[in-house]
Design goal:
InterPro entries: AAA+_ATPase (IPR003593), ABC_transp_ATP-bind (IPR050319), ABC_transporter-like_ATP-bd (IPR003439), ABC_transporter-like_CS (IPR017871), P-loop_NTPase (IPR027417). The chain is of the alpha/beta class. It has 9 helices and 11 strands. The structure holds adenosine-5'-triphosphate.
Length: about 300
């Protein structure tokens, strides 16, 4: 299946699913999280760099929370703290009732299943020597969920769900387009029925028509599977289409968090206004093409 289907311009309309963000249960809570990296005094006299400063946010079941801010403000670092890949220096990350700082082995396994990270990786790629069926089937293999024909059937169901041809199970990543490879990453993230999927800039390097297809796929999957997303982007025009609420981040702090409509209609913070002013949709030729854009965390190696 090729990415040639006509698609609406990605910034033309919203695909946001309506949910009651006040009453839906909280599945993730970030409480006063701070993170400092040691710099050895290279960049500042204290010998540390405060990347995250007093971060508070909640993600409610079924919503898409956007996390927006300029490059370097700490979005990806926060994603990694939430996914349990980097411990916070202080504060708490609660997944359901479980404090990520105090998980036993079973708790870690559950976290690795429950939180999936899908991100833009212009330099990396899906392992070119592995077949797509094996790549998408990794979570089943790693978590001992399914093997043999059962695993193959489940992988092919996932391929179908994300709009890939299941008969392409034995193909290599190089035989897929950029948009299709994103679908491969998304299929792998879906494998273990995650409670939360963190998308880190999943469409920012894609051709504009392919962006629309991937955003539409994300919305379709969310409706069908009742998924919860944390959507990270530097571009307020992109998150507008998919987010119920938006957190605006600047220099390691959340400076504003509100319903998406309120952010656009009545931004409260100067920095949000600056970001909004900068989020004019660029013409298609300004989007770089990328051969391989999304990679999920290889939990076996993490
Ligand atoms: N392991 C590390 N050690 C030291 N500094 C780091 C480390 N990881 C990230 N940083 C710094 O933390 C800051 C935030 O980085 P981060 O990647 O989280 O930002 P971002 O908002 O996601 O930006 P981008 O969209 O460009 O990825 C940057 O200044 C980065 O250089």
């Amino acid at each position: 299946m090729e990415d040639t289907a006509p698609a609406p311009p990605p910034h033309a309309g919203s695909t946001v699913r309506r949910i009651d963000t006040q009453s839906a249960p909280v599945i993730l809570k970030v409480e006063d999280v701070a993170l400092s990296f040691a710099t050895g005094g290279l960049f500042d006299k204290q010998g540390r760099f405060d990347v995250l400063k007093g971060i508070n946010l909640e993600v409610r079941r079924g919503e898409t929370l956007g996390l927006v801010g300029e490059s370097g403000c700490g979005k990806s670092t926060l994603a990694r703290v939430i996914a349990g890949l980097i411990p916070a220096t202080s504060g708490r990350v609660l997944l359901g009732d479980a404090d990520m700082a105090h998980l036993d082995a079973a708790g870690w396994r559950e976290t690795r299943r429950a939180v999936q990270l899908v991100f833009q990786d212009p330099f990396g790629s899906l392992n070119p020597r592995r077949r797509v069926g094996a790549i998408i089937g990794d979570p089943f293999r790693i978590h001992h969920v399914a093997s043999g024909t059962d695993r193959k059937n489940r992988v092919q169901e996932l391929m179908e769900r994300v709009g890939l041809n299941p008969e392409h199970y034995n193909r290599f990543p190089s035989e897929f387009s950029g948009g299709q490879r994103q679908r491969i990453g998304i299929a792998r993230a879906l494998a273990l029925n995650p409670g939360l999927i963190i998308f880190d800039e999943p469409v920012s390097a894609l051709d504009v028509s392919i962006q629309a297809q991937v955003l539409n796929l994300m919305s379709k999957l969310q409706r069908e599977l009742d998924l919860t997303y944390l959507f990270i982007s530097h571009d307020l025009a992109v998150v507008r289409q998919v987010c119920n609420r938006i957190a605006v981040m600047n220099k390691g702090r959340i400076v504003e968090l509100a319903d998406a409509q309120a952010i656009y209609a009545n931004p409260q913070d100067d920095y949000t206004r600056t970001l909004l002013a900068a989020s004019v949709t660029p013409p298609p030729q300004h989007f770089a093409r990328s051969r391989d854009l999304v990679q999920t965390i290889d939990w076996a190696a993490a």
